[in-house]
């Protein structure tokens, strides 16, 4: 198949994604990926596509690779509720590293658009929401549950506080809890978090609470249960990865059922793509994309995004300072290299045109160009990993909202790192 003959150039025109929306059809879930967590074009184009999915195809929610409590603050804002007076204020809930992943100018613009879209709807019409799928907010979610119960059932709040007191001596450190329990230095809190989830589910079945607020509290309780297991197993390789993506899939399913509507997901390619088409899947890893395809056969769309070169906002270490780094030219023979050779700066292509198994690049919140082959590439068959792909040949780093200084990292010789 001639790859160039299958591509549709992205020019910035209103009809850029007509072919993509035709491919989406009546899918219930559309997963929009990214090859890094710090690239402006990925966020911008995800926003453009999502606006059309909401306005033209009736999608009612955006679910992000972010924490449920932080996203709930944004959700309240875009629905015209909560205390925040502007989009920037609503995004301040994203405090945990990497804050730039959601506290950036592209997300700010999208959240502002979503509020304006909702404000323009007729009274009583369903408002589009903004939700989090991830499970890193162990302690924040526990506090959110207690706050909720304090307002509706003080006795239930007291029981929740007593159960969650099991975590008190870890001083809000999920990693410390994981280390202590994994190596037998402390008893786990598994029984306590399961008991709290059971109680919240019983409450959801019979309480007269506000259904939306009760749903959010129940999701936080499930998050705490899954996060406890995640941190307790985080030293066991792909076991914890699978727990994380299974949690995302559970949350997405619960959200779609609660809203009785269609959901757009924003997450990294490594979550959006189907693991069965990658070497990581061959090692036993699951992904959200695989689980969505299994749950909604023929009723989902997985869309990946790639770049050949440019710059990226990332760190050199977990919890390290934010940097603007140069993204090296993709490795010869990689998917990105093949897409670069098409010779069109930005385009959409159905994944069926991507026939070969090749190396694929993945940059997360940490980017290590000096060990790029080992740190950021894996083998994948994109024709099975995604349903469609967007390629942006040269991209630039997104702009964080916070005033923390960006450290600029200079260029590298084209042959560096030789032999890696």
Explain this structure.
It is a single chain. With 420 residues, this protein is α/β, with parallel strands linked by helices. It has 2 domains: 3-134 and 245-408, EreA-like (biosynthetic domain) (EreA/ChaN-like  fold, 3-Layer(aba) Sandwich); 135-235, no CATH class. Helices cover 44% and strands 17% of the residues. The protein contains 18 helices and 12 strands. It has helices spanning 3-6, 18-24, 40-57, 68-78, 87-90, 105-119, 138-152, 154-164, 174-182, 190-206, 211-232, 238-259, 269-272, 279-282, 288-295, 335-340, 372-376, 382-385, and strands at residues 8-9, 29-32, 59-67, 129-134, 262-266, 300-314, 323-327, 346-350, 357-361, 377-381, 388-395, 407-408. Strands 1, 2, 3, 4, 5, 6, 7, 8, 11 and 12 form a 10-stranded mixed beta sheet that branches. It has a two-stranded antiparallel sheet with strand order 9-10. Strand 6 and strand 7 (323-327) form a beta hairpin. Helix 8 runs antiparallel to helix 10. The longest helix has 22 residues, at 211-232. The radius of gyration is 21 Å and the shape is globular. The protein starts with a helix and ends in a 12-residue tail after the last strand. Residues 410-420 have low confidence and may be disordered.
Comma- or semicolon-separated keywords:
EreA/ChaN-like  fold; 2 domains; single chain; 44% helix; disordered C terminus; 420 residues; two-stranded antiparallel ribbon; 10-stranded mixed beta sheet; alpha/beta
Brief digest:
By secondary structure, the chain is α/β, with parallel strands linked by helices. The chain folds into 2 domains: 3-134 and 245-408, EreA/ChaN-like  fold; 135-235, no CATH class. It has helices at 3-6, 18-24, 40-57, 68-78, 87-90, 105-119, 138-152, 154-164, 174-182, 190-206, 211-232, 238-259, 269-272, 279-282, 288-295, 335-340, 372-376, 382-385, and strands spanning 8-9, 29-32, 59-67, 129-134, 262-266, 300-314, 323-327, 346-350, 357-361, 377-381, 388-395, 407-408.
